[in-house]
Design goal:
By secondary structure, this protein is an alpha/beta fold. It contains ten helices and ten strands. It has one domain: NADP-dependent oxidoreductase domain (TIM Barrel). The chain is globular, with a radius of gyration of 19 Å. The protein binds NADP nicotinamide-adenine-dinucleotide phosphate.
């Protein structure tokens, strides 16, 4: 039995609804390298070790095995359902059939409701699992405010039915948020975005905080084993940067834990994936915080090191992956 981290001692993040949850969750994307069985085993070990938030997605291809684990843990009384915070996401090919997508996830996860249901990407653009970065779906379309809002309102209806407790969004930009937020009947509780020391997204993070939407940072360690298709030569390895390795040396811990302490002290929920180090990742935010000087030093590491560029979601006529991210402050059509 691995070490138990008391969830009560894990610092909390708060949604605008007033609900508080632990600031570290477990990611479950195996990055095409870790099998569904091994991810499910990590979920089992993580919950037994004190994790309460789990970040799932239909497109990770492992919800059925994670569901077996959850069912078992709940029936063994290792944890109660209302102590868990299970998040999942509707995939791009199901934006017009959200109820069907959610029912499949609920059936796979063996749950009656999820605690957060995200729109995984703001585009309905499907690409086959494991496809090459250069592959393009000719049916792909640029962002549509109306279609996004329609997808969102389908989730809002499922929330009314009690199948979804909170609504989340993911991979949005400030221009897209500006366009959709005034139109939504319920405010999103959280937004997933890529955040790690060399890609801090300060402006977007501040926008979310100002609008009382919780930032949930994905790839908090710079995803060293992300799928091959997402790796380009100019990418920076955040955990190998001297600022991080020096602070890690001073604290006597792995650089990963410095990234997570920084994420927590910055005010986000972080969702590191791990099959080997999940206990350390949860425990690190309960002890030995970073000093103001260390936080400031990491603050200087911003290098615009976006790792998930999203090429496969591009539509015919789009010039490059930069078009997905509205870098000039307007929605690229
Ligand atoms: N909304 C979205 O579009 C979106 C996109 C991408 C990801 N996500 C979510 O974010 C989660 C996290 O992202 P990610 O998995 O790509 O990257 P990540 O969490 O930044 O990195 C995970 C990698 O770091 C290693 N690691 C974890 N803890 C470590 C430690 N203490 N010491 C040394 N190595 C450590 C893991 O290896 P071990 O397994 O060996 O520990 C794994 O290879 C995903 O699983 C998914 O749930 C969401």
């Amino acid at each position: 039995m691995s070490e138990f981290v008391n969830p009560e001692l894990v610092p909390k993040v708060k949604f605008y609804t007033g609900e508080e949850v632990p600031c570290i969750g477990l990611g479950t994307f195996g990055s095409d390298r870790v099998s569904a069985e091994d991810v499910a085993k990590a979920v089992d070990g993580a919950i037994r070790s004190g994790y309460r938030n789990i970040d799932c997605a239909a497109c990770y291809g492992n919800e059925d095995l994670i569901g077996d684990v959850l069912k078992n843990l709940l029936s063994e009384n290792v944890v109660k359902r209302d102590e868990l915070f299970i998040m999942t996401k509707v995939w791009n090919d199901m934006h017009r059939e959200v109820a069907k997508a959610l029912k499949k996830s609920l059936s796979d996860l063996k749950l009656d409701y999820v605690d957060m249901y995200y729109i995984h990407w703001p585009f309905p653009n499907y690409h086959a699992p494991h496809c090459d970065v250069d592959s393009r779906n000719p049916d792909s379309k640029p962002f549509s405010v109306d279609e996004f809002c329609d997808t969102y309102e389908q989730i809002a209806a499922l929330q009314k039915e009690g199948l979804v407790r909170n609504i989340g969004i993911s991979n949005l930009t400030i221009p897209k948020l500006e366009a959709v937020l005034p139109k939504l009947s319920v405010k999103p509780a959280a937004c997933e975005l890529e955040i790690h020391p060399c890609f801090q997204q300060n402006e977007l993070m501040q926008y979310l905080i100002d609008h009382d939407i919780l930032p949930v940072g994905y790839m908090p360690l710079g995803s060293p084993r992300r799928p091959e298709r997402d790796i380009v030569e100019t990418d920076i390895n955040d955990m190998a940067e001297p600022v991080i390795t020096e602070i890690a040396k001073n604290h006597g811990v792995h650089p990963a834990l410095i990234c997570l302490k920084w994420a927590q002290q910055r005010g986000e929920m972080a969702i590191p994936f791990s099959i080997h180090n999940y206990v350390a990742n949860l425990k690190c935010v309960t002890e030995d915080p970073l000093s103001d000087e260390e936080m400031k030093a990491i603050g200087t590491m911003e290098r615009n090191n976006r790792l998930v560029k999203g090429q496969v979601f591009l539509w015919p006529g789009a010039e490059s992956w930069h078009d997905l991210w509205d870098e000039d402050g307007v929605i690229v059509q």
